[in-house]
Amino acid sequence: MAETIDLRVIAPTISRVLDVPAPNGAEAAPIDEVVDTLRAADRLALVVVDGFGSSLWAHVREDVPVFNRIAALRHREIQSVLPSMTYICISTMLTGVSPSSHGVTDLQTMIRATRSPDMDSVFNRVRDAGGQTLMAVHKRDVAGLDVERFADRTVLAEERNDLEIYARVPRLIREHSPSFAFVHLLDVDEAGHKYGPYAPEVRQTASGMDRNLSGLLACLATCGYAVVIVADHGMHESPERVMDEGGNRGMHDGSVQEDLAVPLLWATANELRDIVRGR
To answer: Do the Cβ atoms of 119 and 9 come closer than 8 Å?
Structure first.
């Protein structure tokens, strides 16, 4: 039986690929098969497709051909962490420590944690080794966060959709070639919350994500980036399709396996070039 691993493996795995020390206190070993594939990479992008858990992916599989081609190359299912909320999950994947260790529960606790001299992350390790970093996120999600502590270059998208991220990240990649790029894509999660994860609107959103992701990956491949793609959590339908107090039909509190099983994909730059060309 395969060992169950969770988001704590992301930080030590990326660190090993980029040949920098893992963040202090990292609680998991790197995934050897990822390291063995990508160890020759000088630059790496971590793309987080928010909310795109394994169950949702299975539901829209015929609508995401680029994602599927990467998964056909290499794919491993891993677990999110509890509680399976975005701030908590991303803090875990970038630090390599469990939620009980990093203490992040929401934006305010993330701000406090990142101001602590004790918090370490992949960003710190890459910069300490002399590499540049890039962070592409939504401005609302990092309001008050000292992003300059982590990233030399930033995309802070003003809108809740991902179009600004898809438009601006390639330019920064071409101009600055950061050693580590972190890209957070929110469209699927937003649609899943609004309509429920298995609604037709989510299928349409996932299809658009796949088309836009293809363009981003083409740029990354041309610029010599290996890529790791992962979801932070999945999502399940609210009971009897009743909206919660926030008006959401989809939720991810970690109470069911749909919230916890997430896909992990990875590819070299050369492999990505062939994939986005349809080979």
So the answer is: no
Adjacent-strand bridge partners of 79:
6, 261
Residue 263 has which token pair?
């896909």
Contacts 24+ apart (CB under 8 A), 273-278: 273/218, 273/221, 273/222, 275/66, 275/69, 275/70, 275/73, 275/217, 276/66, 276/214, 276/217, 276/218, 276/221
Rounded to 5 degrees, what are φ and ψ at 78? -125, -175
Quote the pLDDT of residue 1: 40
How far is Cα 140 from Cα 121, in angstroms, rounded to an integer? Answer: 21
Give yes or no for a contact between 50 and 86, defined as CB atoms under 8 angstroms apart: yes
Angle between helices 187-195 and 200-222 (to 10 degrees): 170
Q: Are 53 and 233 in contact (CB under 8 A)?
A: yes
Q: Which residues of the chain have pLDDT under 70?
A: 1-3, 240-247, 279
Residue 278: the pLDDT is: 74
Q: 40-98: per-residue pLDDT in tens?
A: 899 999 999 999 999 999 999 999 999 999 999 999 999 999 999 999 999 999 999 99
